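This part of the workshop introduces the protein records we will be handling. Getting from the letters to the tokens is the skill we practise here. An example says more than a description, so a record of this kind follows:
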Amino acid sequence: MNVPLPDVPEVRVVGLPQLTAGFDLVERLDLGMHLKVHGPLEPMAGERLAELADRIALRGRGGAGFPFGRKLRAVAQASIRRGVRPVVVINGSEGEPACRKDTVLLNRAPHLALDGALLAAEALGARTLVVGVTRNSTEASVRAAFAERGLSDRRGQPLRARIVRTPERMVSGEASSLIRAANGGPALPPGRRERASETGVGGAPTLLSNTETFAQLAVAARTGARRYAHTGLVDEPGTVMLTLSGAVARPMVVEVPTGVPLRYVLQMAGAPPLPQGVLTGGYHGDWIDAAAAHDAVISRESLASLGGALGAGAILPIGPETCPLGESLRVANWLAAETAGQCGPCRLGLPAAAGGLADVLNGGGQAALEALREVTRAVKGRGACKHPDGSVRFFVSTLNAFTDDLAAHVLGGGCGRETLGVLPLPGPGHEEEGLPSGERFAVDWTLCKGHGLCADIVPELIRLGPDGYPTLADASVPVHLQGRAQRAVRRCPALALRIERETPERPGRTALPGGGRKALGSGRG
């Protein structure tokens, strides 16, 4: 049943629109319409801009939630200390399948985000602007916006602006990945922790924040802090952009003031009246139950107090008819395949955790559950980027949120429900790195001798079971792992491994991958 979200889903608003002003008039606000809707924007000195960000409690809306004013000051201080012009970067790279808010803003209101970024560039004295994008439609919209403003990367321009295209992968949206891509490298974390405010694009101090953050800054600069604070909560004023998907009748992006009840937003999208659980913050976020979803309001503090997370603004309910652990396993396998492959906790730990969850669902009992918990503890805090920790957070939240279902799978024969695949994942037919290739692994068990070389070459997809024979954490081969998958096939001493084209699943059913040799069939090719 998995249906990937469109680039620009339906957009709704609760109350008066700020970021989405003008969306009821046109599909895309060009520069002329943008100025008619929002009006002109006056430059602002650096400290005054930082004070504005402090007064409206502006935090990064990409997931980390770092205070924007502090980030702005850090870049300014590093630039002055080093005598180097800083760089401003809009992170519009959304590689997470459940997020579309930044894509919506860049596709429909690109000049609002550009306003905020150019305001910061003027305040900092920056002469370079970079916009990171993931999708074709977004790149086309930003290029058109550059042309409407006369921005380009030509020498001699007072400010050189360029677009960096990143693949649709979870790790390519991380700040360090985008900076690495802007520097001419792959869109992957560099494997070491560096502060962008000190060393970023071209080695210069870099102010990097996501699309919504810069758009919010542009709105606040026009309205002023006092008027901006008339919307939303006192401690978290303004609006928030959310992406609602999962078990909803109408997937959508919605702009909502902070303080609005979460249950109202879920009702707008046609979510189940009593959801089995609601995943908050996206695939690096946390599950909350129906009672918490009823009590929560849209705010960072409220969701955190109930065990949830605002994160990147993705909200995903699931209904009572699907297996929540099976839904989580689909996401876990995708997260494992999204590894940058640059550290052991990510390259080895996440596939092992996904395989451990599969073992639990396939009748592994208490031993499988304890092994899964041990893996998550071993991965936490040891990764070279944020992907391992975010993924482990999802694993741990799944185990803590669905204890009754977990007990049914560990102690009995399972919960008795199919996995319907309501949580969105990338669909087949895409050619971008990190998405499915339409190929899958198959093992001929009459030939396999358990040498284990395949698990060493592509541990994201193959691991060794307790008996020393391979089990497939996820038989599907993503595009970015095709090379290593083919190498694993070539190096199999017993010629037992092969790659074949995937066959479509029957509607309404999602098989649970990773169940060892029994889950793969009779064993004959």
Q: What stands out?
A: The chain has four domains: 17-227, 231-318, 324-411, 436-519. Confidence is low (pLDDT under 50) at residues 429-436, 504-525.
